[in-house]
């Protein structure tokens, strides 16, 4: 009986295959910017994107995918460190990530345009959306104010529990804004107390000290 030489059936060089696989992880696969990187965090589980990957993927898209729905993110960028999904995921786990929380870039620095470890934190969706001011849509009036010609007055409104709530009608936009400011800041503080045990202390302190300016 002839014994075959086992080396004749040696599989492909595993080290080379592993090297090629690792190299692929560093090829930009999201908007020509983001890449998976080598590490413990997975992009998918079965046929579904993992929660952390979905958050990271959406962040990259908002900043670099040129579509009308992302127009208000036109000037936003993601720091180089977070182009690597592994870096973002490690930061997220160490900084309050929980399912159901949103990545926020506006609370710590008003008008911030950069997603980075120093500018971002996690907030519940109900708090995250409160910080959006829709400046382009309201025109020249202060935040929270619109003009009602049928009354000849300015109306102050704020969003509460996904509903627009009227604060009151006023003769001047400044009066309307002041009423809106007081009501909105009070509402934010109430929600901060509600979510105190689910968000970081840094986020909590920023919320209870949040100041709405007429130029916001």
What is the domain total for the residues?
A: 2
- What percentage of amino acids are in beta strands? 15-25%
Q: Which residue ranges are poorly predicted, with pLDDT under 50 across at least 5 consecutive positions?
A: 1-12
Tell me about the largest β-sheet.
3 strands, antiparallel
CATH topology call of the largest domain: GCC-box Binding Domain
CATH architecture of the largest domain: 2-Layer Sandwich
Average of the residue pLDDT scores: 87
CATH 4th-level superfamily of the largest domain:
AP2/ERF domain
Spatial separation of the terminal alpha carbons: 87 Å
| H-E order | HEEHEHEEEHHEEEHH
Spatial strand sequence of the major β-sheet: 7-8-9
Given the helix and strand composition, which structural class is it?
alpha+beta
Write down the CATH class of the largest domain.
Alpha Beta
Tally of contiguous helical segments:
7
Helix percent band: 25-40%
What sort of overall outline do the alpha carbons produce when their principal axes are compared?
elongated
Number of strands: 9
Question: Which value, in Å, is the CA radius of gyration?
Answer: 24 Å
Task: Lay out the secondary structure.
Blueprint: H1 14-25, E1 44-45, E2 48-49, H2 51-64, E3 77-78, H3 85-94, E4 101-104, E5 114-115, E6 121-124, H4 125-128, H5 135-138, E7 145-148, E8 153-160, E9 163-170, H6 173-194, H7 201-208
Parallel strand pairs: 3-5
Antiparallel strand pairs: 1-2, 4-6, 7-8, 8-9
Helix pairs in contact: 2-3
What's this model, at a glance?
The protein has 216 residues and is α+β, with helices and mostly antiparallel strands.
